[in-house]
């Protein structure tokens, strides 16, 4: 019996040894291809923060038997990955990027196919000198559909790893839709989101305390949507929209979203009052997408001449405006001022987002309307608030819809959604923005096994934002509160 046990143990060691040898197989006599590797996602030449999760990648197109990757830093150190895809150790990756801030990483890729190794041309990844500054991202993930909400929720992702956590999902309340979530300058101590459906409400969470506001106010004529916090945390700007949707018969176009009417207002969280002003709530125009400047003294918004919908939906073109706001007296100050004349270009501006350092304003430009996520012509523009000049961001351009975007707290990074991958599902991309406004090549949100993850994910991302730390939210208690229909009334000041 002892001899048999020893033989079995020896056989086991031999098998383990063979497996380890196979797993550790490295290139020998690799033939140079003279071309860059085809990788998914395309991380060639991107600029990343040192804190980001490893940029794992697959070999695109033809399958390979094995890939061997060495990432070398300018400091002389390197890390190694060998397997069916390039999958790096998280601790080793972060140690390498931390040592090489402001410098390039050189990536060497060898692939094995039918017993033959090939070596591709090296490429670089630049590690930005600017820190990420935020813990992660928040976003909504939603299954495609138009009438039934299906599976959806608000989620958060640790950007230094691949960990994702739900904030709230629509399984908490039957037929619930959650949308329009916003934190104050990435700080979840002040958070708001909207609930649609039978138990509609608007959540205001301040320092862990939740208030559920009436979803609609008779004086507004619509719900409280598209929120944006004033930096002092007391006020929150909203729009109120009578939204409709229509469907195209053209296969290249799917759905159109427009408003029968819309206005903007400011909500005072201390007095539960709504601050309305006829300057920004007019019958002749549809005002939309309000956002405060970083100092809180200015409100940016979009406005277009009210049209007859749906007949004239392509005439719905918005310009970008600003108006003063006085927080101490809770009122608008002066007349509205035109900041960007998109109508003169036969275009429409939507989703304005000022950088938190006060230097730039990011917006999306489309042919018409404001709901840009189904507009393939949509593209990102950057307005220099110090000069008033705006230009398209060439580094972000694609042939598919590029839309919702937000800034990191330090204004050095942006996140946006794009359908550039397959034309159907929106995915999240990040890009560096220098203090001078230069934007780096965007990169797809990293995943542990990117191709396996994205090819199987039947959810679209939207309304992404950065968060300085993990959002603390009791979804079970919130679900009970939503279902209870206990709501805080609001009144117009």
Notes on the protein architecture:
- It is a single chain.
- Helix content is 10%, strand content 44%.
- It is built from four helices and 36 strands.
- It has helices spanning 2-23, 90-99, 450-456, 475-484, and strands at residues 31-32, 39-40, 47-48, 58-59, 66-73, 78-83, 104-113, 116-119, 123-127, 136-142, 152-158, 164-169, 177-184, 187-196, 201-206, 209-214, 216-217, 222-223, 225-229, 235-247, 255-268, 273-275, 285-292, 298-305, 319-326, 331-340, 348-354, 360-366, 379-384, 390-392, 402-407, 413-418, 427-432, 443-444, 460-467, 491-492.
- The N and C termini lie far apart (90 Å).
Q: Count the strands?
A: 36
**What is the total domain count?**
2
Strand content: 35-45%
Head-to-tail CA distance between termini = 90 Å
Q: How is this fold's topology laid out?
A:
Elements: H1 2-23, E1 31-32, E2 39-40, E3 47-48, E4 58-59, E5 66-73, E6 78-83, H2 90-99, E7 104-113, E8 116-119, E9 123-127, E10 136-142, E11 152-158, E12 164-169, E13 177-184, E14 187-196, E15 201-206, E16 209-214, E17 216-217, E18 222-223, E19 225-229, E20 235-247, E21 255-268, E22 273-275, E23 285-292, E24 298-305, E25 319-326, E26 331-340, E27 348-354, E28 360-366, E29 379-384, E30 390-392, E31 402-407, E32 413-418, E33 427-432, E34 443-444, H3 450-456, E35 460-467, H4 475-484, E36 491-492
Parallel strand pairs: 1-8, 3-9, 22-36
Antiparallel strand pairs: 2-4, 5-6, 5-7, 7-8, 7-9, 10-11, 10-35, 11-12, 13-14, 14-15, 15-16, 17-18, 19-20, 20-21, 21-22, 23-24, 24-25, 25-26, 27-28, 28-29, 29-30, 31-32, 32-33, 33-34
């Amino acid at each position: 019996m002892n001899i048999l046990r020893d033989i079995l143990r020896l056989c086991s060691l031999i098998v383990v040894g063979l497996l380890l040898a196979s797993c550790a197989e490295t290139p020998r006599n690799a033939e140079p291809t003279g071309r860059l590797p085809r990788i998914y996602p395309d991380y060639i030449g991107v600029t990343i923060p040192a804190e980001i999760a490893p940029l794992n990648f697959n070999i695109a197109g033809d399958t390979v038997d094995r890939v061997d990757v060495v990432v070398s830093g300018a400091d002389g150190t390197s890390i190694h990955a060998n397997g069916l895809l390039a999958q790096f150790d998280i601790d080793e990756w972060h140690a390498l990027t931390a040592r090489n801030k402001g410098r390039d990483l050189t990536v060497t890729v060898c692939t094995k196919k039918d017993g033959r190794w090939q070596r591709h041309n090296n490429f670089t990844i630049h590690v930005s000198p600017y820190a990420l500054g935020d813990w992660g991202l928040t976003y909504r993930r939603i299954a495609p559909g138009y009438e039934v909400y299906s599976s959806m929720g608000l989620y958060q992702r640790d950007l230094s790893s691949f960990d994702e956590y739900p904030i709230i999902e629509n399984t908490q309340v039957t037929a619930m839709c959650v949308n329009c979530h916003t934190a104050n300058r990435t700080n979840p101590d002040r958070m708001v989101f909207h609930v649609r459906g039978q138990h509609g409400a608007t959540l205001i969470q301040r320092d862990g305390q939740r208030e559920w506001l009436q979803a609609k106010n008779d004086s507004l004529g619509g719900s409280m949507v598209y929120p944006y916090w004033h930096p002092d945390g007391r006020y929150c700007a909203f729009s109120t929209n009578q939204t409709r949707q229509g469907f195209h018969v053209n296969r290249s176009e799917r759905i159109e979203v427009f408003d029968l009417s819309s206005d903007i207002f400011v909500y005072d969280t201390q007095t539960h009052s709504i601050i309305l002003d006829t300057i920004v709530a007019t019958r002749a125009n549809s005002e939309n997408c309000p956002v405060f400047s970083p100092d809180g003294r200015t409100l940016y918004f979009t406005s277009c001449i009210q049209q007859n919908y749906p007949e004239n939906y392509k005439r719905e073109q918005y310009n970008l405006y600003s108006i003063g706001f006085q927080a101490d007296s809770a009122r608008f100050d002066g007349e509205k001022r035109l900041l960007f004349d998109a109508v003169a270009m036969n275009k429409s501006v939507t989703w304005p987002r000022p950088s938190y350092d006060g230097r730039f304003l990011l917006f999306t430009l489309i042919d018409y309307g404001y709901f840009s996520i189904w507009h393939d012509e949509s593209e990102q523009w950057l307005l220099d608030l110090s000069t008033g000049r705006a230009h398209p961001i060439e580094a972000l351009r694609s042939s598919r819809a590029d839309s919702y975007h937000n800034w990191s707290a330090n204004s050095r990074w942006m996140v946006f959604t794009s359908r550039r991958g397959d034309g159907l599902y929106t995915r999240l991309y990040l890009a560096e923005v220098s203090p001078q406004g230069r934007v780096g090549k965007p990169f797809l949100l990293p995943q542990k096994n990117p191709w396996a993850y994205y090819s199987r994910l039947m959810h679209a991302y939207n309304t992404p934002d950065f968060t300085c730390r993990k959002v603390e939210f009791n979804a079970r208690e919130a679900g009970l509160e939503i279902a209870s229909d206990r709501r805080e009334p609001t009144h117009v000041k």
